[in-house]
Amino acid sequence: MDQPLRYKQTYPVPEELPELTPANGTSGAPNTLARLEMYAANSSPPMPRGNIGHIRATTLNFRNISEHGTLLTKYLETRKSIFIDQLKWQVGEADGMEFDQYDTPACRWVVLHEFGEVLGGVRLLPTTAECGVYSYMLRDAQRGILKGIPTDVLFIDAPVKRSVWEASRFFVAKDVASSRRLSVQQELFHQMTTVAMAGGATSILGIVPSVWARWSRRLGINASPVGAKFSIDGTISQSVLFNIHK
Fold first, then answer.
1. What 3-state DSSP class applies to 225?
2. Which of 4, 114, 158, 210 is the most buried (most CB within 10 A)?
3. Which of 186, 113, 154, 119 is nearest to 22 (CA)?
4. Domain boundaries along the sequence of the chain
5. Strand, helix or coil at 40?
6. Looking at domain 17-243, what is its CATH homologous superfamily?
7. Strand 164-172 relative to strand 203-209: parallel, antiparallel, unpaired?
8. Could you say which DSSP state residue 1 is in?
């Protein structure tokens, strides 16, 4: 596995960060109110905006996967084609599907699909989540329990707040035509923020490619860097913070 790259440049800390004081001395398990907010994200699934063909958006979780046939299976198969077959990430695989320790009942999978084919997806997890020794990816990396991701992945202490969710495994399928990729990316980001907001989030943390500034301008979104650049299996990435309301 490639060694993490180190960069000396620094970045201004965004104004939103003073609110991200981690509850390091408290339990990370969500209380009843938090669980209700998490499940509220599924009561009214957001639908695609604008004219983007026959694309549909579905928010999957452990309670509703039986209502959507093989959609979760196809979503995990597409993740394998992207992150294992294409990007060569060293992550979990079983029966042709990619998964890891964060695919739990606490997460939400937002999937864009058309005529039975998965076009894109993203996984959302509240920063209050816990599963055994794991919480969420960026916090676990900072705690030093994830291989391949440096412990200084964040400039701040990883937050544990209902108002902050983590996004991971954001992808657009390789078969999506170049003429549609931007629209699919924009729709996926819109659906991601809609679901996170329904769960009580005001901010989203995520790991994105190091060209995130160009990527965010293309999508018309605001993001602030909250960590130095580093390498995951040869891909240069960086942690960023999205303020949903901006």
1. strand
2. 158
3. 154
4. 17-243
5. helix
6. Gcn5-related N-acetyltransferase (GNAT) (3.40.630.30)
7. parallel
8. -
Report DSSP letters for 170-218, one per residue. Answer: EEE-TTS-HHHHHHHHHHHHHHHHHHHHHTT-SEEEEEEETTHHHHHHH
* Dihedral, CA of residue 212, residue 57, residue 200 and residue 202, to nearest 10: 20
Type of residue found at 119: L
Question: Are 122 and 168 within 8 A, CB to CB?
Answer: yes
DSSP state of 13: P
> How far, in whole angstroms, is CA 159 from its chain's centroid?
15
33 secondary structure, DSSP code = H
Residue 27 neighbours by CB under 8 Å, 6+ apart: 130
Q: Give the gyration radius of the chain's Cα atoms.
A: 17
Can you read off the two tokens belonging to residue 229?
A: 């650049």
- Contact predicate 212/224, CB 8 Å: no
Q: What is the mean pLDDT of residues 182-193?
A: 93
Cα 120 off chain centre by: 12
